[in-house]
Amino acid sequence: MNNEIEQTKNFIYNFIKKYNVNVGASLPEQPFSMLVWNASPVVKNNIASAIDELINQGILSEKNNSYYLTEEGYRQIYL
Q1: What percent of the chain has pLDDT over 70?
Q2: pLDDT, averaged across the chain
Q3: Which of 22, 42, 17 is closest to 32 using CA atoms?
Q4: pTM
Q5: Which domain holds residue 27?
Q6: What angle, rounded to 10 degrees, do the helices at 71-78 and 3-18 form?
Q7: What's the burial of 67, exposed, middle or buried (CB within 10 Å: 0-12/13-18/19+)?
Q8: CATH code at position 64
Q9: What total number of domains does the chain contain?
Q10: Cβ(73)–Cβ(54) under 8 Å?
Q11: What letter does residue 26 receive in the DSSP assignment?
């Protein structure tokens, strides 16, 4: 596994926890964009790949350019 992508996925998990994103809720777009904008180069360079992996793993889903927490994602992040 790519350590930088794992680090970026953890960055996303922490964001989800901080904003208390629930099943079926979208990641708050503006705060997420601002956080990524101010993130380390590692996160900035790997955010797209990390999000793709989270979608492929069923943790996030995408609809109309927004990302939503799935039931599986909720279980993995919160439980």
Answers
A1: 99
A2: 96
A3: 17
A4: 0.93
A5: 3-78
A6: 90
A7: buried
A8: 1.10.10.10
A9: 1
A10: yes
A11: B
Residue 36 near residue 44 (C-beta atoms within 8 A): yes
Match 């439980």 to its residue by tokens: 79
Burial group, residue 79, by CB count within 10 angstroms (0-12, 13-18, 19+): exposed
- What's the residue count for the chain? 79
Give the integer Cα–Cα distance in Å for 65 and 67. 7
Span 33-63, pLDDT tens digits: 999 999 999 999 999 999 999 999 999 999 9
- Is the CB of residue 75 less than 8 Å from the CB of residue 16? no
Output the 3-class SS for 49-60. HHHHHHHHCCCE
